Every structure is written in structure tokens, then in C-alpha cells.
């Protein structure tokens, strides 16, 4: 890599527009781009991040304690209640300006592979094509026991009234309990999704990492993989993260600020103040 920034994780002190102009230049020069997103991408849509602070009913629960097969076996109604609350929150949310700018930017560039750790559908609802949902999809329900997909509609529930415990739906195939189609801690990532993510990270000349703490592997290893294949890695995150050693350029901004500014540069217009 010839033009590595002098210090890893250099936080850009110039105005957002100057930073956007620099990243837009790298984007224009890159034949293939990979974008990796995390929960921070959906934060400005009102979806709580995992390790941030939120005042939700669930804030006293550690997601790592709920997102496991063991938690499901111990208390499936508590785990289903949490996921049903999250589903209702996503259904009520809208894609934010970052989701929309990313979709427009990818359409303009023509070779942007979007890899997300998020299990919401906000990228798709912003018209992005997602190359890989490496942690699964909240709404891809399946039977915990037989694995059969569950397509029956869910009873409506509002995010602010979801009770702590809810009985999971019953599998129409075997009578077992239906679970969300997300990857739980200790479970393997979907093979196809992970293969697509590794391919995208290996092939890109530029990687944008947006809104992830970089704490959960193997997804957290994608920036280092891209770097090993010669890519430049730009992180868009208002706070420092564990990814600093793998980041060439840290853009301290939120997704809904940085991505529209980047798109505006690509379109040759000055971003809104
Ligand atoms: N724009 C960009 N980044 C943001 C914003 C924002 N508006 N708000 C918060 N962030 C950043 C935070 O600074 C943090 O670094 O988003 C990151 C969110 O980190 P986490 O909550 O750890 O979410 P994520 O990195 O996606 O978690 C990875 O952990 O619990 C598992 O499976 C779950 O996919 C998830 C994985």
C-alpha cells in the first residue's frame, strides 16, 4: 500500500466537506468498493445500537445474554418478546439520510458491495442491494426445532407496548417454536453470506466501514482482510473503535451526516450546511 496515512486512525480535523471531497476522490478512483455497516447505520432511524445507551425497556438486558440458543431454551418467551419488540421498532422506523445516500452512491458508482451486520431491512427499504446479511435477518423466521421457514403473518404489536414475554409462534410443520432468522452468539454465520462478504472485502480497493464498534468477529475482521488485499479503509463513526489498527482514515461523523456529504461531492454539489 503506497499512500498509507501517516498515523492509523487519523481523525480528520478539516471540515466535513473537505473530508467528503477526499473520500469521494478515493471512491471515484476505486474500481470496486465494499461498504460494511453496523448498528450505527440505523441509529439515526431510531433503532438502538447494541452497545450504546438507550432508555428502552430492554436496556437492562445484555443482548449477548438474549441472543443465544441457551437463552432461548431457558426462556423462549423472554427472547421472543425482545425480538418482537425489535421487529416492531424496525417496522415503525424509516431509512435515514445515510441509508438513502448510500443507495444513491452505489447506483452512481456501479460496483459497491454492501455487507451488513444489521438484521433490519432498512438498507433494502432505501433501495440498496445487500450483498450479505452476515448476521441474518430479523424477519426471516424459522422453526427452532425443525428449521422449517415460517411465513405466517405475526400478530401486530407496537414497540412501546410489547410485553416482556411473548409466546413464540408455533411451527406449522412440526409444532415447534418459531425463532427469528438472526445469527446468535455461538452460531455459525450463513455460509453464503460470509463467503460473499469475504469476496467483497478481498476484491475492493476502498472499504467504507460505517457504524460498527468492530468488537464482534468474524465480521470485525473484514477491514483487516481488505487492508491485507491492498485496500484503503475509511471508518465513518462519531467515536473511536476497536478497528483503529485496521483503519487508514477515521471520519468522525454520523452515517446520516457523512454519507449525504459524500454523495454531494460525487454529484459535484456543495452539501447542505
Ligand atoms: N452513525 C455512525 N455510527 C454510529 C452512530 C451514527 N449515527 N451512532 C452510533 N454509532 C456507532 C457507535 O459509536 C458504535 O461504534 O455505531 C457503533 C455501534 O456499535 P455496536 O452497538 O457494537 O453495534 P455493531 O458494531 O453493529 O455490533 C456488531 O454485535 O450484538 C452483535 O449481532 C450484533 O451485529 C451486531 C454485532
| Strand residue content | 15-25%
CATH class category of the largest domain? Alpha Beta
- The arrangement of helices and strands along the chain is EHEHHHHEHEEEHEHEEH
Bound heterogens, unique: adenosine-5-diphosphoribose
The CATH topology of the largest domain comes to: Rossmann fold
Q: What's the story with the biggest beta sheet?
A: 7 strands, parallel
Class inferred from helices and paired strands: alpha/beta
Uncertain regions: pLDDT < 50 for 5+ in a row?
A: 1-13
Question: Within the largest sheet, what's the order of strands?
Answer: 1-9-8-7-2-3-4
Based on the structure given, which CATH architecture of the largest domain is correct? 3-Layer(aba) Sandwich
How many domains is the backbone divided into?
Answer: 2
Question: Helical content, roughly?
Answer: 25-40%
Counting DSSP H or I runs of 4 or more residues, the number of helices is: 9
Distance between the termini: 34 Å
- Please tell me what the overall shape is: elongated
| CATH homologous superfamily label of the largest domain | TPP-binding domain
- What is the number of E strands? 9
Instruction: Please compute the radius of gyration using only Cα atoms.
Output: 19 Å
Mean pLDDT: 89
Amino acid at each position: 500500500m503506497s499512500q498509507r496515512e501517516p498515523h492509523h486512525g487519523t481523525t480528520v480535523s478539516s471540515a466535513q466537506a473537505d473530508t467528503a471531497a477526499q473520500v469521494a476522490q478515493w471512491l471515484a478512483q476505486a474500481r470496486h468498493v465494499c461498504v460494511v455497516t453496523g448498528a450505527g447505520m440505523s441509529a439515526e432511524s431510531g433503532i438502538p445500537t447494541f452497545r450504546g445507551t438507550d432508555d428502552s425497556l430492554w436496556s437492562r438486558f445484555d443482548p449477548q445474554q438474549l441472543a443465544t440458543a441457551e437463552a432461548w431454551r431457558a426462556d423462549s418467551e423472554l427472547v421472543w418478546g425482545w425480538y418482537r419488540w425489535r421487529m416492531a421498532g424496525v417496522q415503525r422506523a424509516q431509512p435515514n439520510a445515510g441509508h438513502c445516500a448510500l443507495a444513491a452512491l452505489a447506483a452512481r458508482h456501479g460496483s459497491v458491495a454492501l455487507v451488513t451486520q444489521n438484521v433490519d431491512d432498512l438498507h433494502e427499504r432505501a433501495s440498496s442491494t445487500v450483498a450479505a446479511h452476515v448476521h441474518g435477518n430479523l424477519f426471516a423466521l424459522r422453526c427452532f426445532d425443525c428449521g422449517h421457514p415460517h411465513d405466517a403473518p405475526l400478530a401486530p404489536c407496537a414497540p412501546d407496548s410489547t410485553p416482556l414475554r411473548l409466546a413464540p409462534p408455533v411451527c406449522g410443520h412440526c409444532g415447534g417454536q418459531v425463532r427469528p432468522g438472526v445469527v446468535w452468539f455461538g452460531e455459525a454465520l450463513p455460509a453464503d453470506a460470509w463467503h460473499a462478504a469475504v469476496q467483497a472485502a478481498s476484491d475492493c480497493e476502498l472499504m467504507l466501514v460505517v457504524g460498527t464498534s468492530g468488537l464482534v468477529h468474524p465480521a470485525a475482521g473484514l477491514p483487516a482482510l481488505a487492508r491485507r488485499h491492498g485496500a484503503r479503509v475509511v471508518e465513518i463513526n462519531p467515536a473511536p473503535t476497536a478497528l483503529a489498527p485496521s483503519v487508514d482514515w477515521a471520519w468522525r461523523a454520523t452515517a446520516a451526516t457523512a454519507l449525504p456529504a459524500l454523495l454531494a461531492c460525487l454529484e459535484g454539489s456543495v452539501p447542505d450546511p
